[in-house]
Prior knowledge:
single chain, about 450 residues, alpha/beta, Udp-n-acetylmuramoylalanyl-d-glutamate--2,6- Diaminopimelate Ligase, Chain: A, domain 1, UDP-N-acetylmuramoyl-L-alanine:D-glutamate ligase, Protein-Tyrosine Phosphatase, Chain A, 3 domains, 6-stranded parallel sheet, 6-stranded mixed sheet, 21 strands
Amino acid sequence: xxxxxxxxxxxxxxxxxxxxxxxxxxxxxxxxxxxxxxxxxxxxxxxxxxxxxxxxxxxxxxxxxxxxxxxxxxxxxxxxxxxxxxxxxxxxxxxxxxxxxxxxxxxxxxxxxxxxxxxxxxxxxxxxxxxxxxxxxxxxxxxxxxxxxxxxxxxxxxxxxxxxxxxxxxxxxxxxxxxxxxxxxxxxxxxxxxxxxxxxxxxxxxxxxxxxxxxxxxxxxxxxxxxxxxxxxxxxxxxxxxxxxxxxxxxxxxxxxxxxxxxxxxxxxxxxxxxxxxxxxxxxxxxxxxxxxxxxxxxxxxxxxxxxxxxxxxxxxxxxxxxxxxxxxxxxxxxxxxxxxxxxxxxxxxxxxxxxxxxxxxxxxxxxxxxxxxxxxxxxxxxxxxxxxxxxxxxxxxxxxxxxxxxxxxxxxxxxxxxxxxxxxxxxxxxxxxxxxxxxxxxxxxxxxxxxxxxxxx
Length: 458
């Protein structure tokens, strides 16, 4: 992580330090949360609509921070503390991260996409760790605040950083990629997330493609080759980057020629070799995420023949296709971190194709930020279900009711139950599960359906 004197920090954010007796203080790491201060940190307070972080500056220094920023439009800065006065705290954070990135001798893999960013990040980091010292984005620190914090957490001895880049509007990924300066980038797919903000899948594709704007000379562009919106737009690409595709079909540079779903994982063979890869994650969509990560690892010099070693100890960020056991012996796929129509269809497809269960139950909640067509998207999820492969559907939330309405057309009303309150849903669900049941739990993060998983496990 960043390790600089306060005088050096001031220079990196383009200001003068007016406290000569504080200039040689050593800053180690940066935080924006006064509750998570570590000794030596620089505390950066933000002036929000509801909470002003400047109120916690003294507390942060009491907890171990050695200095803090202070935004000039906030009155009464404590004069006895080591403060750096800035015009804007966020801009100062971003400038500091940009300058620190420029000082690091490190390779960067940038990852974006509507779905699968975090899983692809986790897989890529594991594969690259076979050869390099790797750091990756932790949690969902992938936006205009999270990415600068991630960069500032990079150790000077790190050789490769795997950085996730998220967005909600145009221009955000362009900012992030120009900050990170990646050597290679991955675009996992184009889905329906952010339709509320961007209006169309075409606009989402253009926003995701901003990631190539920060790519270094002769970098590597890995993208989902089965997505026409990406193919169409990259046909006219005239930069120095090398274009490579992954996907399900033989039109791609890397694709699976054989797939098996087995127990808690997937097995597959690619067109590149006869090696059977053992991925400890369920779902064909996660095999595609793995293919993208494999292409990136290959670009950085990791041999395909060694990649099973990288898969063997893979652990995903929580609540992403996490297979757990309930109190009745049922198997639960906890995929409650996020949801879009594309990712929900992929998870349902996995359940439908899973063998060895006498009963399969879907617990589905609202998919958020889908714009004016949100009700139709939800209805179509339910309407597309196969009555031969799904036994029961439980929905939660206002929009979940539309999934239920569609599911009643596909499965019959006696196999579909809609709730807007979790306690009743959980009680009814517990009556339906046995040791031979597979349950999928999936919704957008705001629905907190992990609470259903927790109750089934009690």
